[in-house]
Amino acid sequence: MAKCRACLYLWAMSTLPHFLDRNRPDVPDLAVPRGVTPFFLPKQPVRGRLVRLGPLADALLTRHDHPDALRTMLGEALALVAGLATALKFSGTFSLQAKGDGPVPMLLADCTDAGALRGYARLGEDAAMPEAPTARALMGDGYLAFTVDQGPDTERHQGIVSLEGDTLADMALHYFATSEQLACAIHLACAETPAGWRASALIIERIAGAGGIDPELSEEAQEESWRTAKILAATITEAELLDDALPPDRLLYRLFHGEGVAVDRPRPLAYGCRCSRARLSDVLHGFSEDDLDHMTIDGDITMTCEFCNVDFRFPRADIAPAEPAERREDHP
């Protein structure tokens, strides 16, 4: 049966908690209470986040039958966007979107201010996976965008840069160096373990200004503190990042105990696909009668959520077309 693919991130966010939405499809109600552990080095210009998706990574990455290399890149994107979103003060959605001309032309991950996380990667038709499937080999040439969307009544904030570097971490570092002029270090990991897929991120950044920094610490001493923090962060291994048995506090102490690391309150993350039958029904009502007829196969219209890969079937007879003045601008 033919399907009308709906990229649901284009539609408005729901304010109804997902577990109360009876129109929500059968997807995991999964939350990780300590998904993000913020930390800082007292009196030094360094703060960071340790992201551990735990079983949430497996739930998100196994919705599609993707090659392992693609799941790895998507898992890294999910961990990265979770770490970046929880460093911001906003109400809405923070998203990462990359588009390129490679075997994977689109990569998308987003996280709400409440920690609802979702992601999607599109594999091109008849695309051949490269022998060395780095993020750059998968994406090719294109762009990387980070966006803060706080709803239809607020202007979106977005930064865009070209794809540079071999890894997703390299691409993100290029963004922050050129678009935000922010000094940071990013370490990402994603792999299938005996417990399932796991994804993690360690992100540290140099704090601008004097907030929380020892006033007697000279600029040279601050620079040395930052260099030391980067060197220590670089000693982390993929095994440590993905080890469920290694608590975040213990891992951070192992890395930064000589610097007196302090941990803030952890932030939860949850399975965050926000699709629902009611929302898609509203989308269909925005099409013209000709468009609806064109989508119909054997009396039904089937729409698929690209994030959770769930099909929604709507009898054509139940969908009334919108009046001309009510139709979506992108579907006249």
UniProtKB/TrEMBL annotation:
Keywords: Chaperone, Cytoplasm, Disulfide bond, Redox-active center, Zinc
Pfam families: HSP33
CDD domains assigned to the protein according to its UniProt record, in alphabetical order: Hsp33
UniProt-recorded name of the protein: Molecular chaperone Hsp33
Gene Ontology BP term (one): protein refolding
InterPro entries: Heat_shock_Hsp33, Heat_shock_Hsp33_C, Heat_shock_Hsp33_N, Hsp33_helix_hairpin_bin_dom_sf
Transmembrane regions listed in the UniProt entry: none
Gene3D superfamilies per record: helix hairpin bin, Hsp33 domain, HSP33 redox switch-like
Molecular function via GO: protein folding chaperone; unfolded protein binding
Coiled coil (UniProt feature): none
Gene Ontology, cellular component aspect: cytoplasm
Keyword match Cytoplasm: yes
Domain of life: Bacteria
